């Protein structure tokens, strides 16, 4: 019972506060409106979104540059084993591979 009375009292307090806020913030009453606060908040969020979009574009361009650089290095420094060279017969390739392998071991 004590808790029910406490909750009823809290409810009355909240109703009173709600009415007061409605009277202060209502249109034409000269009270404070939350709309400018929300508009400012939205403007800040839009500004942050624009900054992040710009940063994303810069990072994508940088990523593309690095990917191109990696591909360039791959093609420039690709080492082919004698077996992968075109125009060689299988036995000749095998012999060259063994020679290269033995030279690398030394």
From TrEMBL:
Keywords: Coiled coil, Intermediate filament
Pfam families the record matches: Filament
Alphabetized InterPro entries for the sequence: IF_rod_dom, Keratin_II
Gene3D superfamilies, sorted: Vasodilator-stimulated phosphoprotein
CC terms in the record's Gene Ontology section: extracellular space; keratin filament
Tree of life domain: Eukaryota
Residue stretches in coiled coil: 4-76
Domain IF rod: 1-106
GO biological process, alphabetically ordered: intermediate filament organization; keratinization
GO molecular function annotation: structural constituent of skin epidermis
Protein name (database record): IF rod domain-containing protein
Taxonomic lineage: Eukaryota, Metazoa, Chordata, Craniata, Vertebrata
């Amino acid at each position: 019972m004590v808790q029910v009375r406490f909750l009823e009292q809290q409810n009355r307090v909240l109703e009173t506060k709600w009415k007061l806020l409605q009277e202060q913030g209502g249109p034409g009453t000269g009270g404070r409106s939350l709309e400018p606060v929300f508009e400012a908040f939205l403007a800040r969020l839009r500004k942050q979104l624009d900054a992040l979009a710009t940063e994303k574009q810069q990072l994508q361009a940088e990523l593309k540059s690095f990917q191109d650089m990696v591909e360039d290095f791959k093609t420039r420094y690709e080492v082919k084993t004698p077996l992968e060279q075109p125009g060689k017969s299988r036995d000749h390739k095998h012999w060259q591979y063994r020679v290269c392998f033995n030279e690398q071991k030394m």
